[in-house]
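Subject: mismatched residue count in predicted assembly?

I count 838 residues in my input, but I want to confirm that the predicted structure covers every chain. Input:
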Amino acid sequence: MRSLRWKIAARALTLLATVLLGGLLSATLVRLAPGFDTDERVLDPHLNAASVQALQNARHRNDNIFYFYCSYLDRAAHGDLGTSVSLGQPVRVLLRERLPLTVRLVGIGLGLSWIFTSMLALVAAWLRLSIYDTITTIVSGGLLCLPAAVLALLSVLWNVPGSIAIALIVFPHTYRYAFNLLMKIYSRPHILAARARGLSEARILLCHVVPVVIPQMLALAGVSVSIAIGAAIPVEALCGLPGVGALAWQAALARDLPLLVNVTILVTLVTLLVNSSADVIGSMFRGQEA
Amino acid sequence: MKIRNCNSGEIAALQSAVAVTVISLGMMVGLAAAQGGQLRFCLHNEPKTFNPLQVDDDAAAAIRYLTGGVLIRLNRQTQQLEPELAESWKISKDGREISFKLRSGIVFSDGTPFTAEDVAYTMQELMDPALHSPTGDSFRSGTGKVEARVISPTQISIRFPAEVAGLDRMFDQVSILSQNSPKKEMAVLGPFMVADYKPGASVLLQRNPNYWKKDEQGRRLPYLDSILLNIQPDRDVEMLQFKRGELDLINTLDSEYFDKLAATSPQVVHDAGPSLDSEQLWFNEVSRAPIAAYKKDWFRSAEFRRAISEAINREDLSRIVYRGHAQPAMGPFSPANKFWFNATLKPPVYSPDEALKALAAEGFRLENGALKDKSGNIVEFSIITNAGNKARERMAVLIQDDLQKIGIHVNVVTLDFPSLIERMTQSFDYDAVILGLTNVDLDPNEEMNVWLSSSGNHQWNPQQKTPETVWEAEIDRLMRVQASSNDPKKRKAAFDRVQEIVVEEQPFIFLINKNALSAVSVRVHGAAPVILSPQTFWNAERLAVSGN
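Triage response: the counts match. Full output below for your records.
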């Protein structure tokens, strides 16, 4: 129990360090990107020299990236995440408004993807038909070859929800792994023996397969969350869905440092939390198994 | 009885009168069939503000147009000023003061009465230097305070520190705020008011129940119940939604989409003719630019620029890139700008042979298909433009082909917009640029910051301490002459000369004037797309939608 606590504490520290480093790296990359300290409003012929200068000064305020990042962390500790340069609104408000849509989109997408994955992989493991294997391999392989943006555009074209696009992006990644894993488990001697003794498929699944595959499936679930979050950016941007993914895309195009740093930190935090949780729970299962 | 010969002006006036009558009859027939409904169209970016004084983006400008009440409105169809909240106005002889007689009995959307105090408050807020409002900056003609004197609840006089050219026209952009309303800028005097805002998704406007205008039959305007503005940056998705009937109009349409829609639904597309927008190419003439000295010599040579201009086939640009929905540009102003366009300008001539002759006279020579300058440097340069703008990318490629014919090798480079701006305005690390000028106003005074050599927006060589060429000094002088006069003839003469100098010197090589293309669903009644922004909903208060 004590070692588990240490493990959790160590992971939390690693997580914090990674998140902070991720934020700093993101800020540095944006700062070094060409066009960082320009504002397209300077091209407005209506603005006089003083207004153009004011716009430029506002941009140059974030020139020193370490100063920016330290003051950002200081303000963030007090609940102030800064103000978006391109949208002129507090980042906290923007994230609060947009996060529910992304959570719903990614959640439904992941749920659908895991339902497809589990059903198809289990049926494949039970049937063990080469034709079925060939068909599912072609489908998942085909989906794997399609860029996320193409799937997003198809969802717009066919007027289907963006969550379906997310599901189809995640599915081929999870399906092949789950299929191989189940095939391996089902070919183990004790499963073959159980089948020979006439145990029902449901009992074999629940008592002999599920406990064995849970740690690996949890790890895969963690990875699938990262894939889904990554997919949310093109899907939201192309489908015109006002979520955090679209916000990230907009922030990158506008070199919006405060917004991009916050989105990066949020995405890093969620990804690491999910993967760490999957690892910890997986190791608990492995411990029980041992 | 004598039959008098009509001159061309009278014939044009007669034609316009007939056209207006036909359109009005059409509108009345349409409106008889349908009133009310919800109009749906797209904003291409998130509105940054609902405060009309701080508008600096297209989305916020569209909302300001639909919700804001102004003293004077520029009729987008006739290009004439019309009284709105002001019954009448008068500009003083020295051009520094404007006096308004306001309509009485008008209230804001929340019921707060509208008085001259609100106009004074709006001007005070607008002219706050800390606001950095593009609308406010347009009024800044000299140092000193703007003074608004309230004479009575319906009379106000506004005095500026120096003469402001085209003063009355500028009030088209000034939406009046309420001084006393607890709703602040959300209390409006325009036909619609903001009812709901879903960040990143949509803005819902509802009819202002207190809007003061009525139509000719005495019915209250606007006809529409509401307008739903979907925030959709992607033009492909916008087009798809329009085809599905989820949108009622597309305000500005790409020529490619225009032709696609025209093929299937010719009744929904509208080509209003050449717009005020132009596309142009310019060379980097900045003396401190980090480019080779011999290149600077080419770019600063008027003969070189004229030869390049002559070697570009603008008819091809119009025909191939814009599918015929553009006209070769003659100069800084489009012929669509009826008053300010200099009609004596000659259309550009495409002649690679003449271009080569002119270059030869300057010491350039063609050797093995490559043009060399008198020092033996091969003439080669890059054109940068913004990535994702298909029309500009195609124009750059066609220009590349055209210039190859006279032995000039051109590299086309596309950059994302922030990188492009950085090169244009800070590092000056570029050879030539293709970009466009979007003109929302007819008056040349709006382009002061483009033509004055000291300005940051004098793109080919910005922020000059003193004009580096004689002709730039002359443009500076003429622009100041037109800006310091309220005599339209004097102003026109000065700006005509500016246009001539620009065509002679080619600091901007104007390429084409795009046509104003739009799409309006057959469900929308009363639409009459025009060339001025907002092209399709300029008469939003008189639009109606049936069937939704």
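The first helix of chain A runs from residue 2 to 32. Marking this ticket as 'not a bug'.
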